[in-house]
Design goal:
The chain is an all-alpha fold. The chain is 24% helix and 0% strand. It is built from three helices and no strands.
């Protein structure tokens, strides 16, 4: 269960945690920075072609984080 490319991000497939928080796709990353955002209620992508292809296909801008770990909005999401 959980995130996979065929099903994209589907909350109904995501396992709940002890705190009833649903992980996003970053739960599969190795970076400590990305992992600290794995429970934000945002459909985050790591740096990958899939993210840029999706943005282009949907004609949406890319919100790029440069790794500032005290990002205000990420902590608001928690």
């Amino acid at each position: 269960m959980g995130y996979n490319k065929e099903n994209s991000y589907r909350k109904e497939m995501m396992p709940m945690t002890a705190n009833n928080r649903i992980p996003n796709r970053l739960i599969n990353e190795k970076s400590p920075y990305l992992l600290q955002h794995a429970y934000n209620p945002v459909n985050w992508y790591s740096w990958c072609d899939e993210a840029f292809d999706k943005a282009k296909a949907e004609d949406k801008p890319v919100f790029l984080s440069i790794g500032y770990s005290t990002c205000h909005w990420c902590h608001v999401c928690d």
